[in-house]
Amino acid sequence: MSRRVRIPAIGKMNGPGTTFPTGQDTYNSQAFHNAMFVASRSPSGKTIVYAQPRYVLTNTAVPSGASGNGTAVISWASRSLSGYLQGTDIVSAFGNTTSTVYKNSTSAGAVTGLVKSFTETKVTTTPFLVFPTTGNLGYYYDGTTLSQITSANFPSGATHSRTPVGRFVAMDGYNLIMSSDGAITHSDVNSLANWSADAWIKVSNVTYLGRGILPYGDMIVAFTTNSTHFLYNAGNAAGSKFNIRDGVGFDMGIPNEYACTTFNNTVAFVGVNGTVTNGVYVLDGVAPKKISTTEVDLFLQEGYNNNFRLHTFLMKGKIFLGLNDQVSFPTLLWVYDPELDLWASWTTEIGITQTSLIGVTQTLVKQVTYAVGNTSTVYATYTDAGSNFATMTWETAKTDFGTMDNKSCRRFRLICDKSSSSRLATVQFSKDDYENFSTARTLDLISDPAIDRLSLGKFRNLVTRVKWPTGADDGGALRLEGIEFYLDDSVT
Known about the structure:
Elements: E1 2-8, E2 31-33, E3 35-41, E4 47-53, E5 58-59, E6 70-80, E7 87-94, E8 100-103, E9 106-110, E10 119-123, E11 126-132, E12 138-141, E13 146-148, E14 164-171, E15 174-179, E16 183-187, E17 195-202, E18 210-216, E19 219-224, E20 228-233, E21 242-244, E22 260-263, E23 266-273, E24 276-284, E25 287-290, H1 294-302, E26 308-315, E27 318-325, E28 329-337, E29 342-347, E30 352-357, E31 368-373, E32 379-382, E33 393-395, E34 408-416, E35 424-430, E36 441-444, E37 450-453, E38 463-467, E39 480-488
Antiparallel strand pairs: 1-39, 2-33, 3-4, 5-32, 6-7, 7-8, 8-9, 10-11, 11-12, 12-13, 14-15, 15-16, 16-17, 18-19, 19-20, 20-21, 22-23, 23-24, 24-25, 26-27, 27-28, 28-29, 30-31, 31-32, 33-38, 34-37, 34-39, 35-36, 35-38
């Protein structure tokens, strides 16, 4: 009996296959590498989900003359072109033991330690960047002058002698930062230089280590090693202006100060209980919601808690979440699509330390993700027409097509966009549980349909690996919907 069976490209993610960067097993699951996902509605109203190659990170050559690794970057929105939300200035920090801060390619000066992150804030109406360093100091920058916070009441000052952790958060005219003892200290209102001795609050009476804070709507979420808390501006007359919100919070923390990020109007974080990593979560209201799969959790178990970082990327009009191990697998990025609840693995052009979304060039508004890492310049994903794309790989799950009986395949067809010029995709097959793959067959995507005859002999199950061509086609990437097999079950 002959029949046709279609396998859609899109499904729940799955760990990388045997040839993918981590070397994990496939667990009989389909896998995507260097892919992103796009949903499209057909004229009949049916939603079709495609896989397509991701945009590559391109060297911007900014700043010129920097040395060392990149540790922080921001597209400065407060100094934007009139009428646009996107920032026109790329502010970055580079160095191996001490950072030099750059606005575009102009040095703003050096600081003690390495810059950990930039936060936008304002003093009344004047925009500033405020940032902590690994030297336990705080600095601020108005685009011209770089200044250190020298107040004795700053967490690391003589009054408290605390160790700042995480990033600054700006809220209601105050600038807040956490310390390793779980205290959250804030500046005087509309000030960066002035801090009061009693303007702090501890989030826990237990000796959990503070990890960092992030803005979350009209609240601040505070992470320790074992717990999560929520604060709000209570307008107290004395002491901290902020109170801990009673009755909310949960017994889960984060492993390090870089393992959390704002993401799609919520907060994403790597959740841990002490030293046990539980997975990747987002806040759903004031409760954690797990988004990681078994395979992503395995990656977390194989890594080292101090190395995990979360990043965000803007592509095709939506924001993706990225997870990497900065030391063990710096260029391997697990990427989550919140719209479709899908994960893919990417091999990035640099080992990413930090990203910043929604930038513009000096001449044209574009969707841009800036990134810094183990190079001395800023990299960016430009998603305008003509952008370069990475080589995408799709590996199907092991499938028996509904029966464990022997079967054969006469031909197969890629369900995909038609190319306007000659573009070659390669396809391989495994009949022995990923142990061996056939010689790669090429299909020219200028053909419609992209179809090829196939003679594999008999098999009980099959794994298919498709590698997609790089480059743009008429200004965009070619999309893959799935693969169709023409089977013959009359095989003994």
